[in-house]
Amino acid sequence: MGKTQVCPPRALPPLPSGVKDDIPRSHPKKKKSRSKSLRASASSEVLAEPVPHRPSEGSEPPTTALKEDSETPAQRRQKRTRPPLECETSFTQKKTSSPSLLRNENGIDMDPAEEAVAQKPRRKAKKAKPELQYANELGVEDEDIITDEQRVPEQQSRFTAPTGISQPVGKVFIEKSRRFQAADRSELIKTTENIDVSMDVKPSWTTRDVALSVHQAFRMIGLFSHGFLAGCAVWNVVVIYALAGEQLSNLPNLLQQYKTLAYPLQSLLYLLLALSTVSAFDRIDFAKTSVAIRNFFALDPTALASFLCFTALILSLSQQMTSDRIHLYTPPVNGSLRAAGIEEQILQPWIVVNLVVALLVGLSWLFLSYRPGMDLSEELMFFCDTEEYPDKGSKASS
Amino acid sequence: MLQTSNYSLVLALQFLLLAYDLFVNAFSELLRTAPVVQLVLFIIQDIAVLFNVIIIFLMFFNTFVFQAGLVSLLFRKFKGTIILTAVYFALSIALHVWVMNLRWKNSQNFVWTNGLQALFVLQRLAAVLYCYFYKRTAMRLGDPRFYRDSLWLRKEFLQGSR
Questions:
Q1: pTM of model > 0.90
Q2: I need a labelling partner for B96 at 20 to 30 A (CA). Which of A168, A185, B82, B107 fits?
Q3: How many whole angstroms separate alpha carbon B124 and alpha carbon B135?
Q4: How many domains does chain B have?
Q5: Range of the structural domain that residue B99 is part of
Q6: Tell me, what's the ipTM?
Q7: Residues belonging to chain A with any Cβ–Cβ distance to chain B shorter than 8 Å
Q8: Domain for residue B142, yes or no?
Q9: What Gene Ontology terms describe where this protein resides (cellular component) (chain B) (predicted)?
């Protein structure tokens, strides 16, 4: 209602005298149509764009503008009454067309006061426009819309203009535990810098480096197991020959003494052989069969060592049955001839196989120790693509 | 992208399972005071192999190569590991069933036959190869190239499609 009192009649110069009389009557009409048009525009906004946008923003500035107008003289009022309307309509139209125009560069909604400021220059621009040709209000509004559309870039520049004036606030509001808390900008910059520093440090230790370090650690374990295995196998053979006596004449003594050792040693040999074989395969990159075979035929010590290790593993496993037999050995009651014959038959090949295993693992250890640093898997797996990892590629080649 | 800490954790778990597998393969014949002990060891060993298979497949699914749909490329690269693991798992179950069947009544009996010996050797050899190939695959999957688009990947894809 306040609007009706403050706002001057919208009857404008082009209207005939007969119509002038109707001004007081037509005023509520106008208001109705205006509100209608506003509602229509608002509903169209709602229907057309679900983008959140407060209607108060659109309605408030014109009311303030109208209040300002009420203080101006009547002449000026007459001239100025139209622009606020235009502004209102054009503003709503503009909003429907591009709501982003109401936002400044930082994406923050403009203050109504700022909007009013932004509208003022437009009003001045409108003054120059001839208003006589508009017969009715609808026509006026239509025309306004067209002119506004034509002036979109200009308006845009005017709406965005205040953003240049805005200064950054010293405080930044950060959401912490569902609440916005003020934080000092300088502190925030410091913390982000720290994060950046830590982010810079982290990539130096990548998954690739983890894999490489594990691989190198396993190579060390393998080297140790090779030596331990060779020593163990040699010790085993020495113990067997020592217990068996000269020309293997004291086999029952070997069985009785070695019985408790047979299975644990067999298990330990398997464990060490498995580790050594895996390590030896790693050295020649056994998965790349072509490279491994080529190296073997080229009598590469590492390839030979892998082959010897694998052969020793097969031989050692083939003696599992005999080892279990020795493990479960029960001495005969009166040392019958039959039992003695079986002992010799079974034990002789077992002793020979153990000797061969000891020789094989001893040789393989020697071959591997000849070039302990050689590791084809490391080169092929981790440094194969020099164009992608130039720094590491040069390191590998060196 | 695979995180270093996550990868280290997964690698540690894989190595733990591999170490357990190796330990059981080496010392299960010694730990046969009661048949139940061996049975439990064997069951855990088979579950460990299954876990390792699940982990390696989850690692495959996590790669960019897989997510880009280049499953065939991934299979081509690691088919040795996949096939060998399957063979080893089958051999392990067969040996465990056979050994437990023979030793269930008396674990200190001499139960070896030529067939059992052959199966034993095959299973233990497969175990060594499985260990080597699995370890290699686990470490290769730490390569960042598998987790991003790269020239290498495009080359591999072109080679595969030829």
A1: no
A2: B82
A3: 16
A4: 1
A5: 4-147
A6: 0.94
A7: 202, 205-211, 214-215, 218, 263-264, 266-268, 270-271, 273-275, 277-278, 281-282, 286-287, 313-314, 317-318, 320-321, 324-325, 328, 377, 381-382, 385, 387-388
A8: yes
A9: cilium; microtubule cytoskeleton; vacuolar membrane
